[in-house]
Every structure is written in structure tokens, then in C-alpha cells.
Design brief:
Shape: globular
Structural class: alpha+beta
Number of domains: 1
Distance between the termini: 26 Å
Strand order of the largest sheet: 3-2-1-6-5-4
CATH topology: Beta-Lactamase
CATH architecture: 2-Layer Sandwich
Order of helices and strands: HHEEEHEEEH
Radius of gyration: 15 Å
CATH class: Alpha Beta
Length: 172
């Protein structure tokens, strides 16, 4: 595995097309989920210079009857919220609704959780293993209207790739 990126493209879609095989190569022979998510967040941060890139994993240790929660996983960026309840904020809503959410202006999203006041727009992509969401990929920008269907398409492809590298409790 190479520990360096080759980034020559300047347009968003071309950047995604260029880094996807590199991410796949980084993930190919590594089985540790933390290492894979950490490297993926680093690649996305380096390539796009997003404000915050990271993962929240479904916390499988929450006792039965307690509210389901996401727990902070590997990320790149400033200090982040540690736990997010299902249905709360953009991450919890994407988890509950089982779909990608693009938020052009986080100030207009009801119940937005402001881990940082510098975040202005956000995209959250569920990572689905089988029929179960196991994590979400969360990306924030300091600009409004940063994310669009190009981001959604490529990041959903990335989520599919990452799903193959995550082992859930029932699979062990």
C-alpha cells in the first residue's frame, strides 16, 4: 500500500474518480475498521479540504431499552460531538430515515446539532451492511451550498465500499 495520494484533477467529479481507486487500494488488504475509516477520512479531508470529515458508528453497546445512539469514530477536523441519538441532528436523521441527507444551510435544518458554529453545510451518508445501518459518513463545510448530487453519487459509492470492510456484531 502506498501512503501517499496522487491528486491531479481540479474538478469535483474528476477528483472523486481519481481518489476512489486509491481509497479502494488502501482498504484492500486492511481488515481493521478503525484504520480503514481513519485513512478514508484523511483522504477525503486532504483531497477536498472539507471543514470536517468523519464517521459515527452505531453503538452496539447501548443497553436494550436505552435510546439508540451513534458514537464518534475516526475523523479529521476540530473537536466533535461524541454521541448522537437516532433521529437527532443531520446524522441521527440520516440514520433514522436510512437515506443520504444534503443540507445546504445547517441553520435551516430543524434540530441541527452544532458541534461547531463554523459548519455551514453538511452531507451525511448511511453505511449499510445487509439491511442494517452500521455507521454514517458525515462531512461538513464552512461554506453554504457545498454539497450536491455529484457528492452524493460518489460518497454513496464510497459507503458501499466501506460497508464491505465493516464487521457487525452478528457476523463475528
Amino acid at each position: 500500500m502506498s501512503e501517499s495520494l496522487t491528486i491531479t484533477a481540479t474538478e469535483k467529479e474528476a477528483l472523486y474518480a481519481e481518489i476512489m481507486p486509491q481509497i479502494a487500494s488502501v482498504l484492500a488488504n486492511e481488515t481493521n475498521v478503525i484504520a480503514n475509516l481513519a485513512n478514508t477520512s484523511a483522504i477525503l479531508k486532504e483531497c477536498f479540504n472539507f471543514f470536517w470529515v468523519g464517521f459515527y458508528l452505531v453503538d452496539e453497546t447501548v443497553p436494550k431499552g436505552a435510546p439508540e445512539q451513534l458514537i464518534l469514530g475516526p475523523f479529521q477536523g476540530p473537536l466533535a460531538c461524541t454521541r448522537i441519538r437516532k433521529g437527532k441532528g443531520v446524522c441521527g436523521s440520516a440514520w433514522q430515515e436510512c437515506r443520504t441527507l444534503i443540507v445546504p444551510d445547517v441553520e435551516k435544518f430543524p434540530g441541527h446539532i452544532a458541534c461547531s458554529s463554523l459548519s455551514k453545510s453538511e452531507i451525511v451518508i448511511p453505511i449499510i451492511k445487509g439491511e442494517k445501518i452500521v455507521a454514517v459518513l458525515d462531512i461538513d463545510s464552512e461554506e453554504v451550498n457545498t454539497f450536491d448530487t455529484v457528492d452524493q453519487l460518489w460518497l454513496e459509492r464510497l459507503a458501499e465500499l466501506l460497508a464491505t470492510k465493516i464487521v457487525v456484531k452478528d457476523e463475528k
